[in-house]
From TrEMBL:
Organism from which the protein derives: Shewanella aestuarii
This protein's name: YjfI family protein
Lineage of origin: Bacteria, Pseudomonadati, Pseudomonadota, Gammaproteobacteria, Alteromonadales
Keyword Coiled coil assigned: yes
Coiled-coil region list: 104-131
Keywords: Coiled coil
Matches recorded under InterPro entries: DUF2170
Top-level lineage group: Bacteria
One Pfam family this sequence matches: DUF2170
Keyword Coiled coil part of the UniProt annotation: yes
C-alpha cells in the first residue's frame, strides 16, 4: 500500500464512490510521502494521508494556537475530551501549534475502508469546527 495506489483509486471513483463523495488527490513531495486528499466541495479542509511501515495515517488541520481564545483554552480542551469518544474513527491531536483531527488504519485496509475513513474524517472536521467555533477568536 502506498499513497499513489490510494490516489489512483480515489481519483478514479468519480460517481462510483461508496460514500457519495468525490475526491481530488495530489501527492506532496518531501522527506515523507504525503497525499493531499480534497473532498470535492470541502477543499478548505483537506485530509493528508501518509503510509508508514505500521499504519495509514489520515490528518486534517483545524486551526492554529493563535486562533484560540486563550481565556477559554482549558474549556476547549475539556470539550475536545468529551467529543473524542463519540467522534467515530477520529481523535484530536496537536502538531506543533496546529490542532488536528486524525484517524489511523491498518496497512491491510481495503480501498473501501480508506474511502470510508476519509469521508468520516471530513464529516467529523465539519462537526468539530461547528462545535468548537465558540472557543476561537
Amino acid at each position: 500500500m502506498n499513497i499513489h495506489t490510494i490516489a489512483n483509486h480515489l481519483n478514479g471513483l468519480c460517481d462510483n464512490s461508496l460514500t457519495g463523495f468525490q475526491f481530488d488527490c495530489y501527492p506532496i513531495d518531501g522527506d515523507v510521502e504525503v497525499l493531499q486528499v480534497n473532498v470535492v466541495g470541502r477543499e478548505e479542509i483537506p485530509v493528508f494521508v501518509s503510509v508508514t511501515d505500521n499504519q495509514i495515517l489520515c490528518i486534517s488541520y483545524l486551526w492554529g494556537e493563535t486562533e484560540v481564545n486563550q481565556a477559554r483554552r482549558a474549556e476547549m480542551f475539556e470539550t475536545m475530551l468529551e467529543l473524542n469518544i463519540p467522534m467515530p474513527l477520529s481523535s484530536f491531536a496537536k502538531i506543533d501549534d496546529k490542532y488536528v483531527v486524525y484517524g489511523a488504519l491498518a496497512l491491510a485496509s481495503s480501498m473501501e475502508e480508506i474511502e470510508q475513513e476519509l469521508a468520516v474524517l471530513s464529516d467529523n472536521c465539519l462537526e468539530v469546527i461547528d462545535e468548537l467555533a465558540e472557543f476561537l477568536i
